[in-house]
């Protein structure tokens, strides 16, 4: 459902991503791990069509994100690490606007919006301007936006940051359950217990390269580590090395 083929990205001479290959099948939830600056957000931004890769390609549900951006964008929902939402709209207005972009029929859109506002406990704030929302409320609105069109693929960049325990539990359940029924989820996180509990596979990137890929159980077994935190620290100990320049 998600396919990264030889994905590369440079910023000038700095190589942020080096020929990344990753395939995520229907039914999978994959956690993308890596130290600060490893290339997680770069990977995700190249995958969702926000940052043009220098090489390779990214496909969602068989559609090339850079060749057919409009078709591709109907295939996934995206939650950025820092949601930039237009502050002069209310939450409900933004959801209605997005429903229009996705061409969801009006009555169906209203039902869906009500459902999502309820699910994310945002009903009370539905008519308030987004500029008055707290960080966590914006994050929840961003999650609701990503789910609006019931996309087959969900892509999330550090979705847990700033969430209260209710919302955190809800997102954990979402990550765990959304990939059922033939959908797929890719999310970046620094929370090792979350990745261990909620992912069919884990992809570890380090200095722009895929260092390890497998089920949490396989990875712990292969590296003889107790938990993903120990695995992570052991494999990325040289995180402070010189950057790769070409
Ligand atoms: N616009 C840019 N110009 C130059 N370098 C950049 C740019 N954006 C990112 N980088 C560099 O690319 C590398 C990968 O950054 P990226 O944001 O993908 O890391 P990350 O794994 O998401 O990190 P974090 O866990 O801190 O969010 C970093 O070294 C970063 O400094």
TrEMBL record:
Cited InterPro entries: AAA+_ATPase, ABC_transporter-like_ATP-bd, ABC_transporter-like_CS, ABC_transporter_ATP-binding, P-loop_NTPase
Domain of life according to the entry: Bacteria
UniProt cross-references to PANTHER family, sorted A to Z: ABC TRANSPORTER ATP-BINDING PROTEIN, ABC TRANSPORTER ATP-BINDING PROTEIN NATA
Signal peptide location: none
GO MF annotations in UniProt: ATP binding; ATP hydrolysis activity
UniProt key word Protein transport: no
Pfam families with a match to the protein in the record: ABC_tran (PF00005)
Location of the ABC transporter domain: 2-232
SUPFAM superfamilies cross-referenced by the UniProt entry: P-loop containing nucleoside triphosphate hydrolases
Entry-linked Gene3D superfamilies: P-loop containing nucleotide triphosphate hydrolases (3.40.50.300)
Gene name linked to the record: ybhF_3
Family: Belongs to the ABC transporter superfamily.
Record keywords: ATP-binding, Nucleotide-binding, Transport
Name of protein: Putative ABC transporter ATP-binding protein YbhF
């Amino acid at each position: 459902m998600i396919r990264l083929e030889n994905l590369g990205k440079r910023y000038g001479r700095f190589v942020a991503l080096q020929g990344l290959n990753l395939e995520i099948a229907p039914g999978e939830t994959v956690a993308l791990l890596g130290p600060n600056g490893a290339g997680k957000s770069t990977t995700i931004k190249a995958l969702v069509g926000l940052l043009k890769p220098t090489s390779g390609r990214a496909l969602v549900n068989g559609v090339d994100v850079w060749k057919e951006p409009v078709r591709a964008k109907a295939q996934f929902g995206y939650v950025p690490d820092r949601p930039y939402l237009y502050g002069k709209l209310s939450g409900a207005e933004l959801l209605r606007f997005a429903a229009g972009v996705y061409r969801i029929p009006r009555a169906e859109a209203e039902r869906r919006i009500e459902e999502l506002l309820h699910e994310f406990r945002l009903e009370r704030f539905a008519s308030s301007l987004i500029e008055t929302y707290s960080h966590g409320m914006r994050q929840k609105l961003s999650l609701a936006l990503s789910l609006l069109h019931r996309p087959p693929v969900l892509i999330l960049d550090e979705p847990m940051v700033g969430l209260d325990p209710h919302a955190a539990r809800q997102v954990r359940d979402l990550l765990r359950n959304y990939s059922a029924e033939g959908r797929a989820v890719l999310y970046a996180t620094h929370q090792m217990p979350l990745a261990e509990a909620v992912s069919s596979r884990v992809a570890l990137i380090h200095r722009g390269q895929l260092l390890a890929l497998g089920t949490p159980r396989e990875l712990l077994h292969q590296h003889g580590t107790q938990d993903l935190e120990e695995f992570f620290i052991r494999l990325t100990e040289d995180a402070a090395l010189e950057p790769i320049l070409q």
